[in-house]
Amino acid sequence: MRSQTADDLPSEATTVRMRRARRTIQPRRTGVTTMSDLERDPDTGAARSEGDADDRTDRAVEDAVLEVEDLEKRFGGIVAVDGASFAVERGSITGLIGPNGAGKSTTFNCIAGVHRPDSGRVAFDGEEITGDEPHQVANRGLVRTFQIARELPEMTVLENMMLAPKGQRGESLWRSVLPYFRDEVLDQERELRERAWETLEFFEIDHLAEEYAKNLSGGQRKLLELARALQTDPEMLMLDEPMAGVNPTLEKKLLEHIHQLREQGYSFLIVEHDMDVIMNNCERVIVMHQGAVLDRGSPAEIKANEQVIEAYLGGEV
Ligand SMILES: Nc1ncnc2c1ncn2[C@@H]1O[C@H](COP(=O)(O)OP(=O)(O)OP(=O)(O)O)[C@@H](O)[C@H]1O
């Protein structure tokens, strides 16, 4: 491990601050359909019935940060997502569960812009993001982590944290060579570095800042993955199996961090196979089966649904 320099010293803040003002995103193109438009009958302009609304998203969700409607994604002859509709309450920890092959990861990928859905719509913060590129989705404040952490092994933890978020000012050649802009770039780098230290402190991995990422344990990599996601200043995080390969002590810590972040206003959508994690930590659960949403509700409601139990027992579980 390399030793810390004075410049590297962490700032006084020990928690990840909510620096972002709540984004008030306006429709970006004229003619774009927003989810509120979708609440209306296209011919009459009248609001659709409650029953319709229930089929599409979720009546119980009053302030949706994410809305998915009739999402469909095929790979050749395989229908991976088959008309999935749901909503995620702002500021909630929501679980997305289902047996193997239910379409959870594909749904994540369609939301995050990794896959372009064949049909259906995705809206974030009330604005349609269907078909946006991953960096556009991330720039709006919706980021995802992967089942297998994607840090760069030959870089240190701090360097991984400092990897420039897209559209950063330093990316322009002119900006980096002209004196005025150089100062601006340096300021921005200082800010990024400070934020990186704060986030590493928050996750209690600041002592690993100078360690190469390849030397971290599986659980520490998961923490780094989450820390990196927070570097982009998101509003919502989608976590794909955050507890896979994490030991019970670290799992407890990771869950504590997720709850602390939720208290600060972040929203979470979590795919996780560990049912205890889902049932004990999520206030709402969405169940997928064969590409569609089978049920959604509180953990108690989901546990009591026989169809859900059957879906699991009929699968590989
Ligand atoms: N890139 C792809 N090409 C072809 N088929 C795919 C691809 N990605 C997913 N599938 C198929 O789509 C279906 C849904 O897969 P997906 O990975 O979304 O399910 P999942 O619910 O995340 O499963 P698991 O819990 O096992 O990770 C599966 O039948 C899978 O084989």
TrEMBL record:
Record protein name field: Probable branched-chain amino acid transport ATP-binding protein LivG
GO process terms (BP): amino acid transport
Domain of life: Archaea
Compositional bias segments (type: Basic residues): 17-26
Residue ranges of every copy of the ABC transporter domain listed in the record: 66-315
Gene Ontology CC terms, in alphabetical order: plasma membrane
Alphabetically ordered keywords of this record: Amino-acid transport, ATP-binding, Nucleotide-binding, Transport
Ranges of biased composition (kind: Basic and acidic residues): 37-58
Record-level Gene Ontology MF annotations: ATP binding; ATP hydrolysis activity
Protein purpose: Probable component of a branched-chain amino-acid transport system.
UniProt family annotation: Belongs to the ABC transporter superfamily.
Origin organism lineage: Archaea, Methanobacteriati, Methanobacteriota, Stenosarchaea group, Halobacteria
InterPro entries tied to this protein: AAA+_ATPase, ABC_AA/LPS_Transport, ABC_transporter-like_ATP-bd, ABC_transporter-like_CS, BCA_ABC_TP_C, P-loop_NTPase
Region (Disordered): 1-58
